């Protein structure tokens, strides 16, 4: 359970973190640097060890050397004495994840660490591998008894799995069933790094820690909500994966629906995993299903074509390496969701994401309703008041509203109040993986998805996926690389005075 506490109080029990796929890029680039920062901040117990597991025939010394090089690259200059003490906590087990002998060796290593370092039989397993691989790992862990907790001298046992959590509803359900065959739901931590971002976590604090905002957070004052995740890059080296996925699966099913739930949820009774998860699930259950015959009304897709950005000519999606010439995979997706509950009835939530857009930005824009009566001689609509929550790259919150221009005449113009995390708090903003790894070691699942949420999110999107995969669904609209997306997305907003927030 999350609490208002000092860093010294939020320290896990003595434990071992095991990373499967430890020779991969994620471990070197994100996971070990996150653990380094946690150690440096005093957030890890004195009795802590990390065990990497992978096929490569490394030993402890070579694994430590590789991680030291990764820290030098992704963290920067390091104090050698501190680094030496940190690296001493790192160990390595070489083995094929499909071979039972790997788990015998791992179990022996864990028992040695418990005995020599007092890690108490507490273990967290991080599967830094795709689902098709980690399902085999989970099965082997069950056979080796590595899933047990609180018996025969063992402490707690948890497992972290990376997305994608399925490719559709059926595969997500099967994935959950396979995990539940070995682990209890309370042991499973489905990681979504988006929820570890400081700004996303701050949404509830902003809403519920300030009485001036929560009274406005409803259908009486909000006209609509936009959630945007735009990327300036193309598919890069992920073309093989991305063409089987697309924007809807890659971003909306997990990241952006999670953000929508945090924005729209009712205040939980307390800030703990069970209460927060319950309220987020209620939001998904309240979203009006999109019928397959209504997909063209509520969903828009697009695929980037050739374009120019910053003077550079950019290829279209179909010109990227490993992309089939006849691919219909969407690189842009925008959907309108309606939440049928008391707070949000009649307030559309627009969610969009795309690659090769004008620039990289992730924002939440809450546009407030027009005043009920215009008294300053205006004709037509006034510029809307908006609250914008910037998730990345520059975390912060800004409020835009109308003010009087100085002078004898009553002329209105838009003014802004802006809050920047960097300027207000300074220092280094923790990476999402720092927060999420620490929470898993603490047993705090607040920022993790449970099986019910995963399956319900897929269920909501299945009509759109089914409609888009049919050959009769028409051509996929194109948009120039470096633009704001396809023109067809403008019609999704309905009212002609609504516009997409600037990127």
Q: What can you see in these coordinates?
A:
The protein has 503 residues and is of the alpha/beta class. The strands form three sheets. It has a nine-stranded mixed sheet with strand order 16-15-14-13-7-12-11-8-17. A six-stranded parallel sheet has the order 3-2-1-4-5-6, sandwiched between helices. A two-stranded antiparallel sheet has the order 9-10. α1 packs across α13. It is globular and about 80 Å long. It starts with 14 loop residues before the first strand and ends in a 23-residue tail after the last strand.
Search tags:
503 residues, six-stranded parallel β-sheet, alpha/beta
Distance between the termini: 36 Å
Q: Assembly state here?
A: single chain
Please give the count of helices: 14
- Which overall shape is indicated by the principal axes computed on the Cα atoms? globular
What would you report as the Rg, rounded to the nearest angstrom? Answer: 24 Å
Percent of residues in helical segments? 25-40%
Give the averaged pLDDT, no decimals.
Answer: 91
């Amino acid at each position: 359970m999350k609490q208002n506490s000092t860093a010294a109080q939020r320290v896990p029990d003595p434990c071992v973190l095991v990373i499967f796929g430890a020779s991969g890029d994620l471990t070197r680039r994100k996971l070990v640097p996150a653990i380094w920062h946690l150690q440096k901040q005093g957030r890890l117990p004195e009795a802590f060890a990390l065990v990497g597991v992978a096929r490569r025939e490394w030993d402890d010394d070579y694994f430590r050397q590789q991680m030291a090089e990764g820290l030098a690259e992704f963290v920067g200059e390091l104090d050698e004495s501190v680094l030496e003490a940190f690296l001493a906590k790192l160990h390595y087990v070489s083995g094929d994840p499909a071979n039972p002998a790997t788990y015998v060796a791992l179990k022996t290593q864990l028992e040695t660490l418990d005995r020599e370092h007092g890690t108490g039989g507490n273990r967290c397993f991080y599967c830094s591998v795709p689902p098709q691989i980690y399902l085999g790992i989970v099965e082997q862990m069950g056979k080796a008894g590595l899933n047990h907790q609180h018996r025969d001298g063992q402490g707690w046992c948890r497992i972290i799995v990376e997305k994608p959590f399925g490719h559709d509803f059926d595969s997500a359900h099967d994935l959950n069933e396979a995990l539940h065959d070995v682990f209890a739901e309370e042991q499973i931590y489905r990681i979504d790094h988006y929820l570890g971002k400081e700004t996303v976590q701050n949404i509830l604090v902003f809403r519920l820690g300030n009485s001036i905002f929560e009274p406005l957070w409803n259908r009486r004052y909000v006209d609509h909500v936009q959630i945007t995740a735009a990327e300036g890059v193309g598919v890069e080296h992920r073309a093989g994966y991305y063409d089987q996925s697309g924007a809807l699966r890659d971003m909306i099913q997990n990241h952006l629906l999670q953000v929508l739930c945090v924005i729209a949820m009712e205040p939980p009774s307390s800030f703990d995993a069970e209460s927060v998860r319950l309220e987020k699930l209620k939001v998904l259950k309240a979203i009006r299903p999109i019928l397959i015959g209504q997909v063209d009304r509520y969903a828009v897709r697009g695929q980037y074509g050739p374009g120019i950005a910053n003077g550079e000519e950019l290829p279209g999606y179909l010109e990227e390496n490993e992309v089939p010439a006849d691919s219909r995979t969407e690189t842009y997706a925008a959907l309108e969701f309606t939440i049928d509950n008391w707070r949000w009835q009649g307030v559309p939530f627009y969610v969009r994401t795309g690659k090769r857009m004008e620039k990289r930005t992730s924002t939440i824009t809450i546009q407030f309703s027009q005043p009920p009566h215009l008294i300053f001689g205006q004709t037509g609509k006034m510029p809307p008041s908006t609250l914008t929550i910037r998730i990345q790259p520059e975390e912060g919150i800004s409020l835009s509203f109308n003010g009087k221009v100085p002078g004898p005449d009553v002329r209105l113009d838009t003014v802004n109040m802006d809050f920047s995390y960097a300027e207000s708090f300074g220092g280094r903003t923790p990476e999402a993986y720092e927060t999420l790894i620490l929470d898993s070691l603490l047993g705090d699942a607040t920022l993790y998805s449970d099986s019910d949420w995963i399956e319900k999110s897929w269920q909501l999107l299945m009509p759109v996926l089914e409609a888009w995969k049919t050959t009769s669904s028409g051509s996929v609209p194109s948009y120039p690389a470096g633009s704001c997306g396809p023109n067809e997305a403008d019609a999704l907003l309905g009212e002609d005075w609504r516009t997409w927030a600037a990127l």
